[in-house]
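Problem: given the chain below (498 residues), write out its structure.
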Amino acid sequence: MKTRTRVTWRNSTGRYQVEPLQYLIPENLSDLVKAIQEAERTGYRIRAVGAGHSYSDIAITDGYLVDMQRLNRMLPLKEKQIKVTHKDSYLVAMEAGVTIHDLNRKLDEQGLALTNMGAIDNQTISGAIATGTHGAGRHLQALSGMVRSMVLVAAAGKTYRIEPREGITDPGQYHDPHITLIQEDEVFYSALIHLGCMGIIYSYILEVQPIYWLYENRSVEKWSEVRQQLLNGSMFDDYPIELNGKKEQRPVRSVFIVVNPFERKGDHTCMVTRTFEIERTRSLRFKDRTRAILSSVLSSIPLFFYLTLFIVNHLPRLVPAMLERSIKAVKDATYINKSYKVLFQGFEFIASQGQGAEFAYNRHQKVYLEAIDSVFEKVAQLSKEFKLYPSSAPTLRFVKASEAYITPEYHQDVCYIGNPVLVRQKGANLILNEYQDIHFKYGGKPHWGKVTNRLEAQPELIRQWYPKFKEWQDVMLRFNPNGTFLNSFAERLRLDEV
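Solution.
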């Protein structure tokens, strides 16, 4: 295990940085155990970091910081211990530090694919799951919904394989003296979204599926029409696509909406992305194999970002028209490819310079539409009265309900509303605070990996939102009795207070 001192670690946007006492890079499970034991021996806290994609300080500590980059291998399954076979489900095991990008390609080599993922793929699988990365698809669960088993290293370096009550492991065939098997619903559904507070995840077993292909359609539409389709549910009706020269109605797999918060000609312009699962086709036109090329290329050039930032900070009146053009520029009739290439929405340089808050609402109650309307009103006020023009467009995604105890989609299908801003926009923090206040007013639950600073003034909301929070907390204290895995993020939200 590599150990370094005087290292400065930063998250992907540079918003947070830390100089930990010890910076550790473990290479196997034994290293993780030793790292935790050493931290406890010296009386310091320990946390694990992945790609640093979280916009908050949820992962960091100034004690022992564990970098998971070397724990990135696929692991063999112990078939004799598993109750199901590949005829019933497709199970794969991997170390928790593998990035989603690398995992997709390793799965592809085996003829397999993730059922769902977020819009980017540079996160580690552990970081994405622990903070509730969700992806899109009203009939699809978030990434955590694919977890069937996980290995957690907790206090004193004790190691556990954690599964639900009817887990995939056969207790009668399980013989591992170093890893204790726990098959309890309360433990499993608490540890899925653990926020780093229960220990360090070493590995996962995920249920995936055979390779599949997706057809993506991007269209520019009016918010007034999109809003009505969301109200009456027709947004999710079968939709006509052109495939192999023929038009046909296909079930919508997922919907992703980007909407210009500035009113233009009495309405707001939207980009609506719909995906459809299709059979593999070999006769693809060039335009079917690519997304809006010019937009993707420009967004990947740092100079384009700095030009955008200059406009935002020094010529802010141009922002509404700039957003309008950028939304229309990504219009692309079709994009067809393997699932993970379509689900990945692109990690352009300009996207890496953003941050944001994101909130989940019950999809069936429609209050999220009122929240969006209030965001539009706030944007209009900020730009008209204070010449402060928010630089990015709100987004909407839809996700299926989950059993994980403290995920925003616990026992409810949700609409996630994302509110991004550019990191170096003047007034960005004020804009984010305004967005958060609006969503708290309407009952939105924040995404743990996004900006959540306004929640710190009212952490009691967490106990109101999550009926199983007490159970989650009991499990956290079971694996972390001395606070070894807490940090300032957990303390500000009083996650450890009974």
